[in-house]
Fold this protein.
Amino acid sequence: MQIRDCMTREVRVVGTDTTLAQAARAMAEIDAGILPVADSDRLIGMVSDRDIAIRGIGHGLGPDTRIGEVMSEEVLYCSEDDDVEDVLNNMAEIQVRRLPVMSREKRLVGIVSLSDLRGDGGAAHMGDVLCEVARPSTHHSQM
């Protein structure tokens, strides 16, 4: 099975001028913990609920602070034609729960989360992936 078969296609995208409060409301509306950040049609970062809480509020920044100040500029992603098993293994290795999904033309076409993939790899394999994702790390901040 390929990622295009199980990803979430509707993706809310924010810009760097979006405020922390606006991003938090958007996350609440769509029940998501991460939003892609774009400049025109180019994906330039990701902002997570953790970025808002830790890098934003935790450092004394207010709700009117712009996302550009707290977003993660490192964008880890997968391709829509990647194999689900390969993406699961990659998510375990790089320790993320969600990844943006890009087309061959490098356009954002969706988001894939561990919950989207849970039915494919079996319970034992998913348990292994979750253990790896939860392992303490300092590699990156995209959660």
Notes: Strands lie at 34-39, 42-48, 78-79, 98-102, 108-113. The chain has a mean pLDDT of 86. Residues 19 and 65 are 5 Å apart (CA to CA). The first helix runs from residue 20 to 30.
